[in-house]
Write a structure and sequence with these properties.
Layout: H1 8-13, E1 19-23, H2 30-39, E2 47-49, H3 70-80, E3 83-87, H4 91-99, E4 104-107, H5 115-125, E5 131-135, H6 142-154, E6 160-164, H7 181-190, E7 196-198, H8 200-204, H9 210-219, E8 224-228, H10 246-255, H11 266-307, H12 314-330, H13 335-358
Parallel strand pairs: 1-2, 1-8, 2-3, 3-4, 4-5, 5-6, 6-7, 7-8
Helix pairs in contact: 2-3, 4-5, 5-6, 11-13, 12-13
The chain binds phosphoenolpyruvate and manganese (II) ion.
């Protein structure tokens, strides 16, 4: 996929600040939409969002106002100058979004999982000059996310961005949707020219962690945010727990620390180079040590083969893990990190030993 031109829209909309898309989960009434928008008028908020059709997990909940809400959004645009963004989930929504001249269309997480729906929407907006933002699919599948982007690219859309909104998981955890940072960073690495926007609201699922999540996004160089904002969050008809008031959003923005993107300062560069040199050196040593460790594991594999012993020796493995956790604790390395690291090392050792055992 050619991605050279993909982010010129971002420079036009948000040349000075990170892109900020704010507004309610759902458009509920004209008053709620206008009051929320009026509270958001600020040079650091460039786009007003509102869900007009709501994909709800179970039937019987509020499913959005639909077409009658679109003129309310036009009013917001005329009155505040903000651009307007809505979610579209099928070709009919796409046609209405074009009819009402909505600026930015986004594909929701429950739609990007479905290649048929994505293709139908792509065909419906073929040739339009709209900006399209594609949320990650609900399940952590990088190819599916990339596939959705490709479908819009194939119909000639050039103004494409992606939104990282986290991934659902079976087990309840700290977040409503697990961030799985590595997956999003893999996307970023493969397509560095596609702007990536963070949606702290749908990751957190509760308003008290929106700020921390947004700061994390800035630190990881996300180019923008989508944050659900409601004039009266507790009374919201959808996603009440995660919405903040316009005033709270402005306080969050005020507190966010924009790390310098500009590395023109030679003193800073020298300092960074100094530390990066040390990191490179340590990384080399780590890799050499790991390689040595693997060679020893292979030697053990050969002995196991001679004696016809199983590769996995659970007791020994538990002992290694426990020792590593204890040592890690003394070295200020978290148990979670040690477990992940040693599982990966152990997996590689097992694979190497298996090759030896399989060889005649
Ligand atoms: C939303 O933005 O309100 C929404 C439904 O998001 P998602 O597709 O990420 O669940
Ligand atoms: Mn929502």
């Amino acid at each position: 996929m050619q991605t050279k031109k993909l982010n010129h829209w971002l420079e036009q909309i948000a040349p000075q600040y990170p892109l900020m898309i704010a507004g309610p989960c759902s458009a509920e009434t004209e008053e709620q939409v206008l009051a929320t928008a009026r509270g958001l008028v600020d040079k650091r908020i460039q786009v007003f969002r509102a869900g007009v059709w709501k994909p709800r997990t179970r039937p019987g909940n509020f499913e959005g106002i639909g077409e009658p809400a679109l003129p309310w959004l036009k009013k917001v645009k005329d009155e505040t100058g903000m651009k307007i963004a809505i979610e579209i989930a099928n070709a009919h929504h796409a046609e209405l979004a074009l009819k009402y001249d909505i600026d930015i269309l986004w594909i929701g997480a429950r739609t990007s999982v479905n290649p048929f729906a994505v293709q139908e929407i792509a065909d419906a907006i073929r040739g339009s000059s709209k900006i399209i933002l594609i949320k990650n699919p609900v399940n952590p599948d990088l190819s599916l996310w990339i596939g959705a982007v490709e479908r819009f690219h194939q119909v000639g859309m050039t103004d494409i961005g992606v939104i990282h909104r986290g991934f659902s998981s079976f087990r309840p955890g700290q977040y409503r949707n697990e961030p799985n940072w590595q997956l999003a960073l893999d996307f970023k690495q493969r397509y560095p020219n596609i702007p990536m926007i963070l949606d702290p609201s749908h990751i957190c699922g509760r308003r008290d962690c929106i700020y921390d999540m947004a700061q994390m996004g800035l630190d990881l160089q996300y180019q923008g945010f989508m944050i659900e904002t409601h004039i009266n969050p507790d009374q919201a008809w959808s996603d009440a727990k995660q919405q903040v008031t316009p005033k709270q959003l402005l306080q969050i923005i005020e507190k966010l620390c924009l790390r310098k993107q500009n590395f023109a300062d030679p003193e800073l560069l020298d300092k960074l180079d100094f530390y990066r040199g040390q990191i490179n050196q340590l990384d080399n040593e780590l890799l050499e040590l790991l390689s040595e460790r693997m060679k020893i594991a292979q030697e053990i594999g050969r002995i196991k083969k001679q004696k016809n012993v199983a590769v996995l020796q659970s007791a020994r493995w538990e002992e290694i893990m426990q020792k590593a956790i204890d040592k890690g604790q003394k070295l200020q390395l978290s148990e979670k990190f040690i477990r992940r690291l040693f599982k990966a090392i152990h997996q590689e050792s097992i694979e190497k030993q298996e090759v030896i055992l399989k060889n005649k």
